[in-house]
Design a protein that fits this description.
Blueprint lengths: L1 H67 L1 H9 L4 H77 L3 H6 L6
Length: about 170
């Protein structure tokens, strides 16, 4: 009977150690997911800042175009008296148009990056929730294993007609 109890205790200890290892692994995975979530949030913030900068650049280009007006730009080109004046003005107009195109292009890229970062953040948060569930399951398994081991040992010990009377006198009186 004692050998059976010791075997049950040994098995319960092994199960408790396995459950503890699973819990530790689940906690490590959850910590890594939390770190990935923090990195994704920082990246998301940086992208939002870049989008704001691109919008400001685009706003500046739009203000310049509005204040100068397309007709004013066209009149400067048409008022050129020499080919050199025309070329200089044309280059200036093209530079402004390219700046606008560039700002629009950057804005489009940043918005695509923002969408991608939001999707990655959503996936990381879902993974984190799954890992939390795994950790909770591992903890429950560990608690159940320890409870079962204690119950098995106590059940074997208390049901033993030999062991109980011998040890009964060692219990403190109430």
């Amino acid at each position: 009977e004692l050998g059976t109890a010791q075997a049950a205790v040994t098995e319960a200890q092994a199960q408790a150690e396995a459950a503890h290892a699973a819990l530790d692994e689940a906690r490590r995975a959850a910590d890594m997911a939390t770190e990935r979530e923090s990195r994704a949030l920082r990246e998301l913030s940086e992208i939002v800042q870049r989008i704001d900068a691109a919008r400001q650049d685009l706003g500046a280009v739009a203000r310049d175009a509005y204040q100068g007006g397309t007709m004013a730009t066209l009149s400067v080109v048409l008022d050129a008296e020499t080919p050199a004046e025309y070329a200089d003005t044309y280059v200036g107009v093209r530079t402004v148009l390219r700046a606008g195109d560039s700002a629009l292009g950057r804005l489009a890229v940043e918005q695509a990056d923002l969408l991608d970062a939001r999707q990655r953040l959503r996936a990381i948060r879902e993974e984190k929730e799954e890992l939390a569930e795994v950790a909770a399951t591992a903890l429950t398994a560990k608690e159940a294993t320890v409870t079962a081991a204690v119950a098995a040992v106590l059940g074997r010990w208390s049901s033993s007609p030999v062991a109980y009377p011998q040890h009964r006198s060692s219990f403190p009186k109430r």
